[in-house]
Specification:
This protein is an all-alpha fold. The protein has 2 domains: 50 residues; 210 residues, MetI-like fold. It is flat.
């Protein structure tokens, strides 16, 4: 009865909609507040535990010691240099890996025969520990930035291909059959039906590729690097400067989160334009 009255009374329906949106905004603010509280609580617990001797501050460090290390690295300019190197490698790996993975997934969707031929090889490549290829990459492409970017590509591209291809294949066959009935070519079917319907899958692949690119870059920097956050982590561990290790990990987490949320904001903007993000 209330729903019927709301349908008959536009003013009541508008008020109900406004109240619903306010409730969503309050819920979102609550979630953000809880997230911040968990983060602050974690750092407070970490600091208190180190000061009271519950944990060994030499091994586990502490937020205050991490902050001192970051301040020292910032004042000397080292932090910006190492962050710049790692960001360049990550952005290159992320961009090239996403584009190459999406294009290759489109190629496999286009040719079912090729997909069936390459499917077992894709599975093997996805399961293969990429770090095992590190020595080979160093011999093939050298011990510079190229080897690190290639490692990032190996980690992210295969996952992107499999994720995007699954999204392409999940598009309703009835829609594709309708397009063929109307005389559409395979390219038109892909551009008008498959690709637009796969936007959520593509965005999901982007989010996944962000994390995988960071993994690939850090693994590459572990193996061969003279600069970067991975280099700082390895160097700090070798000389037992664990404050440096923890500081590098904190910066790494912050940069990865920023990159992820940049993709998430772009997703929200895109869905809003498509009229799908009203309730997000």
């Amino acid at each position: 009865m209330r729903a019927e009255r709301s349908q008959r009374d536009p003013v009541a329906a508008s008020a109900a909609h406004t109240a619903f949106l306010k409730m969503l905004r309050r819920h979102n603010r609550f979630i953000i507040a809880v997230r911040l509280a968990l983060l602050v609580g974690f750092f407070m617990l970490w600091e208190i535990s180190a000061r009271l001797g519950i944990i060994n501050s030499f091994i586990f460090s502490s937020p205050s010691r991490v902050a001192q290390t970051l301040a020292r690295l910032t004042s000397s300019g080292e932090l910006f240099h190492h962050v710049g190197v790692t960001m360049l490698e990550t952005v290159l790996g992320f961009t090239i890996g996403t584009l190459a993975g999406t294009l290759f997934a489109a190629l496999l969707w286009w040719s079912t025969t090729l997909e069936r031929i390459l499917d077992p090889y894709m599975v093997v490549l996805n399961a293969l520990p990429k770090i095992a290829l590190g020595p080979i990459l160093i011999v093939w492409v050298g011990s510079g930035v190229e080897a690190i970017v290639v490692m990032a590509l190996l980690v992210s591209t295969v996952v992107t291909v499999m994720t995007v291809l699954t999204g392409f294949n999940d598009i309703s066959s009835e829609k594709q059959l309708l397009m063929r009935t109307l005389g559409a070519t395979r390219l038109q079917t892909f551009m008008k039906v498959v690709l637009p319907a796969s936007v959520p899958t593509l965005i999901g692949a982007l989010k996944l590729s962000v994390g995988m690119s960071w993994v690939g870059v850090i693994v590459g920097e572990y193996l061969v690097s003279k600069a970067g956050l991975g280099y700082l982590i390895v160097y700090g561990g070798q000389v037992f400067k664990l404050d440096l290790v923890m500081a590098s990990i904190v910066v790494l987490c912050a940069l990865a989160a920023i990159m992820y949320y940049a993709v998430a904001l772009w997703e929200k903007s895109l869905l809003k334009k498509r009229g799908e993000g009203a309730l997000r």
